């Protein structure tokens, strides 16, 4: 079975699991004067991540959702406005920060360009009208089919916000796929984001974990929020050790995963009924069933019967995510399966 449901299905390698056995551990919740805990492996992961991104500090979280939510609730208080667009993962999938039951942040939606990238003019106009506490960006963009922002685009959006002293939080769950697509190191790509979250648990192949990188001052406040939300952990070097392994060995996977998405597209050729997103930037490909009598659920069920697991997403779309558990041959095979299903749709 070829599993393209998500890059979260990647399994830790034996070397990654071995790294746990020799990791020095301690109580990460027992913080010193500057907020660092006593787990040497967590501290090593946070320092390594901060350096990789050229920022002062990093804070380890069990999930990306808790990491993003903690960052948002550190930047903004309930009833403050936050600039967003509805297809952001934070808005569409996580929801907590904007929920009337929980974070109570007030969403203000900015326009996106025809390509799906945030519109700087719209952001500037909304800032002057609403004095928001934060601007949210996502790179690569999950629900926009892995769309990547270039360093120039990131700079322009961040500069616009900073001109009015509005900080920027980047959801960079798959920022290494954006690094691979743009050819720009994450330290440069994310230079002007004030905080950014990235996942160890997706294409990087670790079993657990996300980090938020930022300046030192913000990281201290973020640790406080993490504690309030129940995200402080104890001998969690057992989860940080695979994360260090992932950052040292698996970042180059992103480039291969992006290439496999391109290989899939090439092999797919022209479909008659299903519509494939264009362009494809990174490791995500969306296919629309809108022009067919098929629902995304039916397409997924038929694909599964042929040996390909994919997932419905948004309305009338299925999502394919390439990751290290998928070989070049798997990518070709997946294209053959989708092409066959597309042929069969003609009969309907
Ligand atoms: C996966 C993901 C997250 C957070 O995911 P968790 O499953 O909570 O670790 C955040 N943003 C984006 C864009 C994602 O794809």
Kindly list the characteristics that best describe this protein.
alpha/beta, Aspartate Aminotransferase, domain 2, 7-stranded mixed sheet, 4-stranded antiparallel sheet, 13 helices
Task: Write structural notes for this entry.
The protein is an alpha/beta fold and 348 residues long. It has two domains: 10-249, 3-Layer(aba) Sandwich (Aspartate Aminotransferase, domain 2); 252-344, Alpha-Beta Complex (Aspartate Aminotransferase, domain 1). Helix content is 42%, strand content 15%. It has helices at 14-21, 40-52, 64-75, 89-94, 120-130, 151-163, 175-182, 186-189, 216-228, 237-249, 253-268, 296-305, 328-345; strands spanning 2-3, 57-61, 81-84, 106-109, 134-138, 168-171, 195-199, 210-214, 275-276, 284-288, 308-309, 311-313, 317-321. Strands 2-8-7-6-5-3-4 form a seven-stranded mixed beta sheet, with helices on both faces. β9 (275-276) and β10 form a beta hairpin. α11 (253-268) packs parallel to α13 (328-345). The longest helix has 18 residues, at 328-345. It is globular. The protein starts with a strand and ends with a helix. The mean pLDDT is 97. The protein binds pyridoxal-5'-phosphate. Pyridoxal-5'-phosphate binds next to α3.
């Amino acid at each position: 079975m070829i599993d393209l449901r998500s890059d979260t299905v990647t399994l830790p390698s034996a070397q990654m699991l071995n790294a746990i056995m020799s990791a020095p551990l301690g109580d990460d919740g027992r913080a010193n004067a500057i907020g660092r805990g006593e787990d040497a492996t967590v501290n090593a992961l946070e320092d390594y991540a901060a350096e990789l991104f050229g920022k002062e500090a990093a804070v380890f979280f069990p999930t990306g959702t808790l990491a993003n939510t903690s960052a948002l609730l550190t930047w903004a208080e309930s009833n403050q406005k936050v600039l967003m667009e509805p297809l952001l993962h934070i808005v569409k999938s996580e929801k907590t920060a904007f929920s009337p039951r929980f974070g109570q942040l007030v969403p203000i939606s900015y326009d996106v360009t025809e390509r799906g990238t945030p519109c700087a003019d719209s952001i500037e106009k909304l800032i002057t009208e609403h004095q928001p506490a934060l601007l949210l960006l996502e790179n690569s963009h999950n629900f926009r089919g892995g769309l990547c922002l270039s360093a120039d685009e990131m700079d322009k959006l961040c500069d616009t916000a900073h001109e009015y002293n509005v900080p920027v939080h980047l959801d960079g769950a798959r920022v290494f796929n954006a690094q691979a697509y743009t050819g720009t190191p994450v330290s440069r790509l994310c230079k002007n984001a004030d905080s950014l979250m990235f996942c160890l648990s997706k294409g990087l192949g670790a079993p657990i974990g996300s980090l938020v990188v930022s300046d030192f001052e913000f990281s201290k406040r973020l640790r406080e929020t993490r504690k309030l939300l129940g995200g402080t952990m104890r001998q969690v070097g057992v989860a940080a050790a695979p994360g260090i392994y992932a950052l040292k060995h698996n970042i180059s996977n992103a480039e291969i995963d992006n290439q496999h998405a391109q290989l899939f597209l090439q092999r797919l050729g022209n479909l008659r009924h299903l519509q494939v997103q264009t362009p494809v930037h990174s490791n995500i490909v969306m296919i629309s069933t809108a022009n067919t009598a098929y629902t995304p659920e039916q397409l997924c069920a038929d694909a599964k019967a042929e040996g390909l697991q994919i997932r419905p997403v948004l309305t009338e779309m299925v999502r394919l995510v390439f990751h290290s558990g998928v070989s070049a041959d798997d990518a070709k095979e997946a294209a053959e399966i989708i092409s066959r299903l597309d042929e069969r749709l003609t009969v309907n």
